[in-house]
Amino acid sequence: MTDFAQMVPIASITPFNVGLAPASEATMISALGRPVPPIDASGCHNAQASPAVVPLLRRAQLESVVMYGLGPAVESLTQILQQAFAAAPALADLLESDGMLCVRLQRPTSGAPTSRLSNHGWGTAIDLKLKGQAPPAATGAQVPYFVAFLAPFFNKAGWYSGIAFHDDMHFEVADQTIHAWAAAGRFKATTEQHPA
């Protein structure tokens, strides 16, 4: 049986995030508005989500992974996980979310605190972990195998892996994908999307 908790060298999974960049605060505000201030890095201030985001929020669950975030991100994430679980059925019994929508400032894994908004604040990022284990953050030159396994699935769908900034648990919709979704009109509320 595959040990998804086993640590593997980051060098063994490169290249990753090719042609992708983390979504900038300017991109997110331009596409989805600004969360309602004041906001800090403590807790989740989800009642202060951007008014443009609120009607687009959706909830879904696949196996033990609970998703609550921006509708297009939840839809994309569901497809990513379906593909990953089809390739590794054992992972479906082990993986769970450590949060998606969380309106707050970024919490850097190293360095000084920042005043930049986290992409969790628009519901376009998710943190993942294995059941019964702490979510992996900065793990140096190695990452848990489940992160290494998932990264290509996320990258192919236009998501950026937090491995690049030492936040292993973190995946977010890439800057390029946010622009593409905005251009395609995917951030317009429809009657099929309901906040939970």
Written overview of the protein:
26% of the residues lie in helices and 17% in strands. It is built from five helices and eight strands; from the N terminus they run βαββααβββαββα. The strands form three sheets. It has a four-stranded antiparallel beta sheet. Strands 1-6 form a two-stranded antiparallel ribbon. β2 and β3 (65-70) form a beta hairpin. α2 crosses α4 (145-156). The longest helix is centred in the middle third of the chain and has 17 residues, at 71-87. Mean pLDDT is 92; it is low at 191-196.
Biggest sheet strand order reads 4-5-8-7
Count of helical regions = 5
Using only C-alpha atoms, the radius of gyration works out to 16 Å
Proportion of residues in β-strands: 15-25%
Shape: globular
The chain-level mean pLDDT equals 92
By oligomeric state, this entry counts as single chain
* Distance linking N and C termini: 37 Å
Outline the biggest β-sheet. 4 strands, antiparallel
- Structural class of the secondary structure composition? alpha+beta
Number of strands: 8
